[in-house]
């Protein structure tokens, strides 16, 4: 048993919360409970456990960069109770067996629910559909499919994937990047600055044109598409239009695209190399506004750990990606809550309820009420944190937030009644 004392339940004021056998059994004023561990939550905000739609855990294949265990630790410290593990591992998660293996490794660690994402195409090669139905019907129950890292570029393949997943309520999460408009070398927002720096440009239209196509394919098939890591104002416009038409589209934004801008590239530090690239301030402002007004449904980290020997290269040669799990809540607090763009109920929506709904996770993203699973994140809204890349559960150090001070931090994470992390460390 666990007794959480005096947490602000967002909208319901300070309450005590009793957890028995992983389920919330009482909410209100609870003086004591015999045999229960007590967690003092005075001054803390209680959110439903955070859900990340987009995490790279690197196992199998790149256990030097991250493992399911180390990434689960980072997730727990970051306030997450469920993460969707992207399929671009080695081997790729494109079979039922591969998906079940990830599920089992996640369960063995037990710090967070690790939910496998299945590849859309075999080997992420974009040609032949992977065994979507078998992955869905497996113990892993895969509902989110993505070739993330690569775009499902062939419109016919995308159409067939959408038709296929519609049968069981699945969704395709698209890494929107036209490979001709933004080729493999493209690594900086295309504009005056990329020209001056001599970096191959990645124009916003390479994203926007794929999203425009995909929402039309979703309309045509009556299926559901999700847009990964939206990075431009015009993509927001497409998503807004599609939603207004009743097209079944959802979209996510990363913490880094809500804050970091392309001018950080002037120092050629590869820590700022990410896909899609950092954009100008006008895009950042549009993304914040779209997250606030619901056009963007979710914040997803795109936690992308990379080993030192893959990241510490000349900018053009370095790997794409940055860490995100441990800092996401602080970034969102700092940029969205402190500026009144979102209140804590809004944070619960974009970091828990909406991602859980998109991924079809019934045990997550639920209101903190009697009868619900006790997955929760306690946040100290006034804590000031200065990010230190060396104090991380991740095996990698490609942390773009190093040295930054933010307000608002995860205090503790509870997964089905069990404390999984507290004050930056795994419990
Ligand atoms: N975001 C990145 O820059 N990198 C991701 C791939 C991806 O999300 O597209 C990775 O796997 O490293
Ligand atoms: Zn991607
Ligand atoms: Zn990714």
UniProtKB/TrEMBL annotation:
Any single GO BP term: 'de novo' UMP biosynthetic process
Residues holding Zn(2+) 2: 148, 175, 229
Tell me which residues bind Zn(2+) 1: 54, 56, 148, 302
Q: What is the enzyme's class at the highest EC level?
A: hydrolase
* Keywords recorded for this protein, A-Z: Hydrolase, Metal-binding, Pyrimidine biosynthesis, Zinc
Which reaction equation describes what this protein catalyses? (S)-dihydroorotate + H2O = N-carbamoyl-L-aspartate + H(+)
One short Pfam name that applies is DHOase
Query: Which cofactors does the annotated protein need, by name?
Result: Zn(2+)
GO MF, one term, reads: dihydroorotase activity
Cross-referenced NCBIfam families: PRK09357.1-1, pyrC_multi
State its Enzyme Commission number(s).
3.5.2.3
Q: What's noted on cofactor binding?
A: Binds 2 Zn(2+) ions per subunit.
Pathway info: Pyrimidine metabolism; UMP biosynthesis via de novo pathway; (S)-dihydroorotate from bicarbonate: step 3/3
According to the entry, every stretch annotated as the Dihydroorotase catalytic domain falls at: 45-232
Which PANTHER family does this entry report, sorted A to Z? ALLANTOINASE
Question: What GO cellular component is one of the record's annotations?
Answer: cytoplasm
| Function per UniProt | Catalyzes the reversible cyclization of carbamoyl aspartate to dihydroorotate.
Into which family does the record put it?
Belongs to the metallo-dependent hydrolases superfamily. DHOase family. Class I DHOase subfamily.
Concerning SUPFAM superfamilies, the annotation shows: Composite domain of metallo-dependent hydrolases, Metallo-dependent hydrolases
Q: What residues sit in the active site?
A: 302
Q: What is this protein called?
A: Dihydroorotase
Where do the annotations place substrate binding?
56-58, 88, 275, 306, 320-321
């Amino acid at each position: 048993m666990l007794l959480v004392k005096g947490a602000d339940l967002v909208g319901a004021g300070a309450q005590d919360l009793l957890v028995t056998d992983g389920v919330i059994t009482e909410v209100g004023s609870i003086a004591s409970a015999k045999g229960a561990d007590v967690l003092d939550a005075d001054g803390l905000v209680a959110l439903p456990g955070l859900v990340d739609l987009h995490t790279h855990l690197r196992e199998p294949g790149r256990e030097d960069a991250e493992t399911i265990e180390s990434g689960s630790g980072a997730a727990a410290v970051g306030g997450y109770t469920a993460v969707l593990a992207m399929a671009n591992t080695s081997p790729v998660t494109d079979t039922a067996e591969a998906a079940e293996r990830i599920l089992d490794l996640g369960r063995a660690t037990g710090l967070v629910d690790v939910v496998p994402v299945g590849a859309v195409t075999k080997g992420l090669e974009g040609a032949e559909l992977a065994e979507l139905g078998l992955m869905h019907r497996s113990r892993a129950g895969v509902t989110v499919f993505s070739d993330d890292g690569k775009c499902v570029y062939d419109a016919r393949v995308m159409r067939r994937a959408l038709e296929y997943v519609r049968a069981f309520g699945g969704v395709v999460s698209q890494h929107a990047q036209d490979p001709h408009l933004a080729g493999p070398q493209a690594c900086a927002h295309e504009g005056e600055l990329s020209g001056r720096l001599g970096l191959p440009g990645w124009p916003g239209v390479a994203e926007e044109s794929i999203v425009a196509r995909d929402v039309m394919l979703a309309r045509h098939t009556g299926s559901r598409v999700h847009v990964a890591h939206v990075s431009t104002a015009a993509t927001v416009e497409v998503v807004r239009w599609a939603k207004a038409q009743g097209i079944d589209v959802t979209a996510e934004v990363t913490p880094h695209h809500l804050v970091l801008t392309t001018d950080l590239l002037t120092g050629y530090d590869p820590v700022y190399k990410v896909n899609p690239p950092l954009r100008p301030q006008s895009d950042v402002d549009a993304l914040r506004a779209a997250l606030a007004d619901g056009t963007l449904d979710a914040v997803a980290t795109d936690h992308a750990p990379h080993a030192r020997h893959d990241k510490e290269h000349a900018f053009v040669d370095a790997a794409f990606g940055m860490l995100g799990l441990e800092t996401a809540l602080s970034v969102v607090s700092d940029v969205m809550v402190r500026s009144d763009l979102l209140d804590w109920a809004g944070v619960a929506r974009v970091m828990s309820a909406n991602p859980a709904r998109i991924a079809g996770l019934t045990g997550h993203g639920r209101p903190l009420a009697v009868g619900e699973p006790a997955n929760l994140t306690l946040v100290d809204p006034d804590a000031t944190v200065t990010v230190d890349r060396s104090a991380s559960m991740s095996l990698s150090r490609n942390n773009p937030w190093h040295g930054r001070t933010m307000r608002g931090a995860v205090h503790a994470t509870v997964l089905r009644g069990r404390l999984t992390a507290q004050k930056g460390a795994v419990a």
